[in-house]
């Protein structure tokens, strides 16, 4: 390890062993896929909360727009039948 | 009910709400006490009546005095499905219709204060020419603010395979055979072209969903994730428009225009139709299997007589055409399925019993093997005795067309290969099939060298 640090401090070209040392923390850190078999489905819940904001708003606008169209259609048909 | 004569179906053992069992060759479903409240809500709320009246959910009747064990709340007897099929055997539009039905049921259930707790494609069957939901125990009380528990399953069972079929290749529905709980979303995201991300629906429900699954895998936090009813409905609405927007890819089939490219004259083709129709009338079969049906032209000779007809082919476009014709003609008695006879669907799932193999799912009064034997024998190197054995295990009567080597289509199959099929002759054909069948009739087809046989299993 000391040699490795010395190699860095003296700005010697990095050798393969030095690169491996650098990679060790990443190799040992838990990977997301390592927990796939413990997945409680949180990801599928979380994404619904996120995309629900967009799709919920779109749905509300669509439903509201539909109601407005229905309202005017209703008025027009009432007017036509009165005539 | 004598529990000794009862056999539990291995397809429903995962469900704590109840299970399916077979009793005297008919299927029943036990509703467990643990599901009592949800079952009562389904019935009392009027949702069951509503869904059954729209032919969305299979009808059932409650069987009194037939409780089988302490866990039973009720025993129900659903309408019996003539032939069980699986999503990897469906063509694109069958899977799409099944997906849209699932979403329509979820939307209706929400109006009645309920929701689907699972959205498995195996909960859909094709019955009377339409998809129908068969899992009566899939409904639960809608919990306000709770996200859709079946969202992941819907995306894996329907959206991912449909998108792969639409954007890449129709044959990718076979991934459903490998992955019992649907196509993993990270796999779908890797396979799909990058531009698929640009679609709002597909980008959200497949790509972002896969990313969210990945980043939350192993998440131990217990924070409550809330989704309002309008957001819930927004997601269902988006799934619906995303699925509805998926189209068939422009893919040329092996059998496309097959009937335009045969060596039959019009007279020969009509002669074949006439003979098959006459034999169907004489035999009056209760079930038919057309094992190489192409677009189902000859299957319709059976289904038009109101005979349940299984119409299989290995080509997804041929089955697609068959299904679309069925829908347009409102044919209630035909079931088109993608089945490769040289490699039929195997038994899969837990202990290889959860989903049955194709060949173990039924036998038939009558089977058609029309313009098929030369493909099996010459193109696939299958010995005639093996072909005869297969049909003898599945059918009582067989209508089979012998296509001699001199036939131009058989010649085409031999065009670029050595003729190693010394035993492929009419004499050998009759000899091998006579081991399993009695030849009842033999009719040469007009303007052709082909011969049509009617056989009875020995």
Tell me what the structure shows.
The complex is a heterodimer of chains A (about 80) and B (about 450). With about 80 residues, chain A is mainly α. Chain A has one domain. Chain A is built from three helices and no strands. Chain A is rod-shaped, with a radius of gyration of 31 Å. The N terminus of chain A is likely disordered. Chain B is an alpha/beta fold. Chain B has three domains: about 80 residues, no CATH class; about 140 residues, no CATH class; about 200 residues, Vaccinia Virus protein VP39 (Rossmann fold), CATH 3.40.50. Helix content of chain B is about 35%, strand content about 20%. Chain B contains 15 helices and 16 strands. Chain B has a seven-stranded mixed beta sheet, with helices on both faces. Chain B has a five-stranded antiparallel beta sheet with strand order 1-2-3-5-4, with no helix packed on it. A two-stranded antiparallel ribbon of chain B has the order 6-9. In chain B, strand 2 and strand 3 form a beta hairpin. In chain B, helix 3 packs antiparallel against helix 4, helix 3 runs antiparallel to helix 8 and helix 6 packs across helix 7. The radius of gyration of chain B is 24 Å and the shape is globular. Chains A and B meet through helix 3 of A and helix 4, helix 7 and helix 8 of B.
Write the layout of secondary structure elements.
The complex is a heterodimer of chains A (83) and B (458).
Chain A: H1 2-9, H2 16-28, H3 42-82
Chain B: E1 6-8, E2 18-23, E3 26-32, H1 36-44, H2 47-53, E4 60-63, E5 72-78, H3 92-111, E6 114-116, E7 124-127, E8 130-133, E9 139-141, H4 151-167, H5 175-178, H6 185-191, H7 200-216, H8 229-244, H9 266-283, E10 288-291, H10 299-303, E11 309-313, H11 316-328, E12 334-338, E13 364-369, H12 373-379, H13 384-394, E14 395-402, H14 408-414, H15 426-434, E15 437-444, E16 451-457
Parallel strand pairs in B: 10-11, 10-13, 11-12, 13-14
Antiparallel strand pairs in B: 1-2, 2-3, 3-5, 4-5, 6-9, 7-8, 14-16, 15-16
Helix pairs in contact in B: 3-4, 3-8, 4-7, 6-7, 7-8, 13-15
